[in-house]
Amino acid sequence: MSLPSASVVVVSRDRPGLLCRCIRSLAWLDHPRFEVVVVADAAGLAALAAAGLDAPLICARQDGEGIAAARNAGIALAAGEVVAFLDDDAVPEPSWLARLVAPLADPEVAAAGGFVRGRNGFSFQWRGREVAPDAAERPIPDWGPEPRVFPPSGERAVKLQGTNMAVRRRVLAELGGFDPAFRFYLDDADLSLRLARAGQAVALVPGAEVHHGFAASPRRRADRAPLSLHDIGASLAAFLARHAPPAAAGPAVARQRAEERGRLVRHMVAGGIEPGDIARLMATFEAGLAEGARRPPGPLPPLPSPAAPFRPYPARPAPMRVLAGRPWQARHLRAEAAARTARGEPVTLFLFGPTARPHRLRFTEGGWWEQSGGLFGRSLREGPRIRPTGFRRRLAEEVARLAAVRDFQPIAPG
Description:
Helices cover 33% and strands 21% of the residues. It is of the alpha/beta class. The chain has three domains: 6-212, Spore Coat Polysaccharide Biosynthesis Protein SpsA, Chain A; 230-292, no CATH class; 321-402, no CATH class. The strands form three sheets. Strands 1, 2, 3, 4, 5, 6, 7, 10, 12 and 13 form a ten-stranded mixed sheet that branches.
């Protein structure tokens, strides 16, 4: 079966640099037919224009209505059979979109979710989970390495993650898209439960990988220390009003309250916040609960048909070039990576120093992938801390590991 056409919706606010990096990464996607819709604030749209990245995009401005409303604005502009979602602080692997939407070639599958790696590029931030009407989540056991379709069953639903998910556009429109009551947090969980209650099957696709940074925002600092818990409290109250039995709401709020307090205590112990910040931040959580309880849980109207025709994005999929060397060669190798990237050649640069420093994998602002660390250090965090090896052997091992999600050119001998 051929892949369905896809619209990639990226929403952004207060992160123009990260938005540009995200858009640059889409040039290497190997899906044969997709478009890109960006819903961003004025600064984000201006940054895209200044970088010359805006011409192939379908853009809309939105400044402060919340993430659910921004995603709905993106859906309104999306003309693909499937709508996929990315956050602005996320970067997909080149195979991400094709793998994510592949299960939707089956008309019985309505949505799909992939896996999310965290800041270091190796540890998983999120894998298969399910969500209950009281907002409690638990891992899905035995998900396996291959895509797996989950038919709707009971009250729990496969939890789609907003930074790595795809939904058939027709189904999204019928369900009314995302609920604007969720300005941040639980908007994807709400949609997951509504999909399940509508009898829709959802696929889990472990090989569809996105790297997500948890960048700073008006709600948190770069070290993830909260600046406000208001939106979390408000979304929780709205979610429970829509989905939870009345008897479950109180325990769910108590559980979330304890989790948020525990998170604040950990930030305090780590030196990220002061002791007096705990009471102040917990007060924002309580204020959010009160506001969220006043958000009406009415039915969502269906979304309109696409506002514009499908506009294919000019991606440049190609086997990825491997560049490798020592840290003292980084300047020269990065210049070569930049030149090859400008010519339309995707690059992964490996920099291994003579240490046991753990590795980091990231997509650079210049448009290439870069993995750096000690020759004897670990990449996968569950591996040994020190691994005696040679340069060529280590390079071959890391390329072989990444070949699960990227198509590499053969490594030249030498």
